[in-house]
Amino acid sequence: MLKKYSIVIDENIPIIDVILSDYHHITKVSGREITNQLLKSTDANCLICRSQTKVTQNLLEGTKINFVATATSGSDHIDTNYLTHKKITFNSAIGSNATSVAEYVIFSILHWSKINQISLQNKRLGIIGFGNIGKRLANFAEQIGLIIIVNDPPLRKSGFSFPQNLSYCEIDDLFNSCDIITNHVPLTKNCEFATANLINSDLIAKIRNNSLFIHTSRGGIVDESALNEIETERNISFVIDVWNSEPNFDSVLAQKCLIATPHIAGYSFDGKLNGALMMMNALTLHTSVAYDLKLLNEAHSHDSKIAIEKLDKSELYDKLNERRAFLRDNEIFAQTFVTDSAGKAQMFDEIRRKYPVRRELLISAFDELTISQR
Questions:
Q1: Which pTM value belongs to this model?
Q2: Active site positions, annotated
Q3: Does 98-260 match 6-92+269-300 at the fold level?
Q4: How do residues 34-56 score in pLDDT, each as one tens digit?
Q5: CATH of 6-92+269-300, one of 1.10.760.10, 2.40.10.10, 3.40.50.720, 3.40.50.2300
Q6: Which of 1, 227, 280, 367 has the fewest CB atoms nearer than 10 Å to its CB?
Q7: Tens digit of pLDDT for each residue in 336-364?
């Protein structure tokens, strides 16, 4: 006989609540509405969340939760030490939205080039963090004529062999030499290669004049106050998607940005579908149930993607602008800048909660992501 689980799911994870409702008791709510009381009142065994939910001892203590999964690449909102101590199974969706974020960065670079009438040929792109996003970004960036510079100390220490078509350098040299800088590292603390406040005031002071700085990883990695102090005459452009105290954010800094958005770079529908598939795979291992994934697989197949090599830079810009509408996101976010702190935070969450279905444009390895259970 099938054992029914009680599962709490973040409402921003598509389709899986429909699938799982045929097998288990499902409670679907906003990520910030997932509380200790809710988990207790629903008698929940399993929690599937996103980054809005802080999964800590305070959330889980006294509940029956024995499985936690986050449909996000990052897991800094999860107290994994506590989960390990309590023998609670944990899974994340590392890499699920890598193409989504890489497209955001590529569009930002193209927009900066267009607005400032700057040729990208042989401009130096510094990528801090060469994981799932960094690798895809490097591949896309090479196709638009950029020279790729990479920094990733833990990956280098592991013995990873970096591709010959890029150069590796220390982070200080990267900031001194690159025309465009972007970081794609997880937020980590109290470890050998901790990234909290990695991009501090000393590094920010090294950013070259007339350059572009892009921040799409996690709030807490970049010193926002140091960005605010950069003199206007240095003509440094900012693109920022993540903020130190989300859903609160620095509206003064946001108004200085070429593009400012409320943590939506990885919010493509494809990225969410990838995360949902990975959640179902993890849950299958936990429950030993062979779920019918027809709805997810059909959703994955209803898209059309293009190899970046088939587009010139102008076509790539236009198609990304049409498909992903990042400039529209920037306009909508700008409407929140004049409201009070409470209003800004509420609107930040509301934009994300109501984010429209946006499909990715460029072909990537994740197009082949499937799960064996049907």
A1: 0.93
A2: 218, 246, 263
A3: yes
A4: 999 999 999 999 999 999 999 99
A5: 3.40.50.720
A6: 1
A7: 998 888 899 999 999 999 999 999 999 97
